[in-house]
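To fix ideas, we reproduce below a protein record of this kind.
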Amino acid sequence: MVAETLARRVERLEQRMSALETLPAQVADLGAHVANLGAHVADLGGQVADLGGQVADLATQVADLGGRVTDLGGQFSQFREAVAVEFSAVRQELRGEMQAQGEGLRREMREGDEETRRYMRVLHEEVIDRLKTIQEGRPKTRLR
């Protein structure tokens, strides 16, 4: 029994020794994997740095756009004020022109009214003269 146990133990030790002999190769493979991962990490670090630069550029561009929007707001406000002033001036000019035209039309209407009245008087006088002429040619009759 002891011999058998000893043989088993020796066999196990030999298996372990075989496994230990492959250990340096496995460690070397792990070292290569770690080095490869280190290169990937360094590459990712560069990409992160590039992205950081891009974000900084974007922040600068956003700040520039903010300034432009503020400038445009001021320009729009000035434009709105200028348009309001111009519309007011046009409105006043049109009012003046319309008042002048209205006064001219009223004057023409009064003159036309006067002319119409004169013509009506002339026609009235003609009608009265014709009625007189008609009355002169008829015999006088009494009204009942």
Notes: Helices lie at 2-21, 23-137. The radius of gyration is 59 Å. Residues 71-132 form one domain. The mean pLDDT is 88.
